Amino acid sequence: MDVKKDVVKMEDNRTNIGCGFSSSPFSGIFDFCEGEKSSSLGFMELLGAGQDFCTNSLFDYLPQTPSMLPSLAPNFPNTSIMAKECSDYSLNQQPATPNSSSISSASSEALNEEQTDNKGAADQLEEEEHDQPKTKKELKAKKASQKRQREPRFAFMTKSEVDHLEDGYRWRKYGQKAVKNSPFPRSYYRCTSTACNVKKRVERSFNDPSIVVTTYEGQHTHPSPLMPRPTLTASASAQPSISTTFAMPSMPRTLLSHHYQQQPFNFCNYVNGGSPTANASGTGFHRERRFCTPATGSAMLTDHGLLQDIVPSHMLKQE
DNA sequence: CGCTTTTGACCAGCGC
DNA sequence: GCGCTGGTCAAAAGCG
Among candidates A132, A81, A121, which has minimal Cα distance to A217? Predict the structure, then answer.
């Protein structure tokens, strides 16, 4: 799949992709979180490289997103969500040569596997709840019959000094493994909420240690215990206040308010070059305060920056 | 005391 | 069959 090639290529070149290239900046996320497979959008940058508040823009779209999205937004300053990818993507599944555009078969197969496995995931889950294996043997047999049932996955890279990014949910670490060809271990986390099977893997990029790759698997079956979800009505009817509708306990409030109040930003313009499709086609959610400077936005309009080096030209033209 | 983290062992899948 | 690797388990240790 081309998308995966692009992701790998991006990693190999140690380059940030530029601004988004889809008319709907979060369409890829939507597709994936809904359990569908989107080949049209493999990854996107949510904010420009080097900007330090991309997290906010994710939360900006919270009311439009499925339940999984909040967990995708690490609440850290100086964290740039650089890419997402719609499959089981591992930094270590890279081509042997830096310039190679080929991808590992394991990576591709993982995607295919998910495509078939996801079909009956809900049914299987229900079945599990009603038919709990009682012994280890039964558990083993059950596992064998399931043959690696997997939830949809969502991987993205963030630039952060912190490995385990706070995302509003509580996680319990259940494993850590050394990663082949990498000095950095991979950590495995599970959502602590009972009956919630969401997992995530966290690992640091071998090529760029400042980059953390987080892979989420599954969707939360419960609201965030640490971050109350905003309601559409509240968001749409009033000027959303970060303190009331987007409380992010792990993120310094001062930082948030700083960005909200002093960094004019329109994500739609940023992505589409002036056509505010996201807000217009969204849920009616609308925000007065914006995130990036007009200067930044206009620069993105005329210059794709690093994106044009990475994203195939035909994708850039798709806007 | 309860919850989380650590860490070695174990298992499954895959390629050779 | 064997070795490698990714993923998970579970007992022990750590922590508040």
Answer: A121
Domain range for residue A210? 166-215
In this complex, the residue with its CA at the shortest distance from the C1' of nucleotide B15 is A106
Q: Considering any atom of strand B, list protein residues whose CB lies within 7 Å.
A: A 105-106, 109, 113, 140, 143-144, 147-148, 170-177, 187, 189, 192
A109 belongs to a structural domain: no
- Number of domains into which chain A is organized: 1
A259 touches strand C (CB under 7 A): no
- A149 Cβ within 7 A of any nucleic strand C atom: no
**Residue segments in chain A with a per-residue pLDDT below the cut of 50:** 1-78, 80-147, 228-319
CATH number assigned to the domain comprising residue A172: 2.20.25.80
For residue A81, being part of any structural domain is answered with no
Distance from residue A203 (CA) to nucleotide B7 (C1'), in Å? 17
Q: Å from A175 (CA) to B16 (C1')?
A: 29
Note the pLDDT of residue A227. Answer: 53
- Who's near A99: CB < 8 A, 6+ residues apart? A12
Annotate A107-166 with three-state secondary structure.
Answer: HHHHHHHHHHHHHHHHHHHHHHHHCCCCCHHHHHHHHHHHCCCCCCEEEEEEECCCCCCC
Q: What is the C-alpha separation between A56 and A75, in angstroms, rounded?
A: 8
pTM reported for the whole predicted model:
0.49
Q: What's the sign of the alpha-carbon dihedral A297, A264, A68, A120?
A: negative
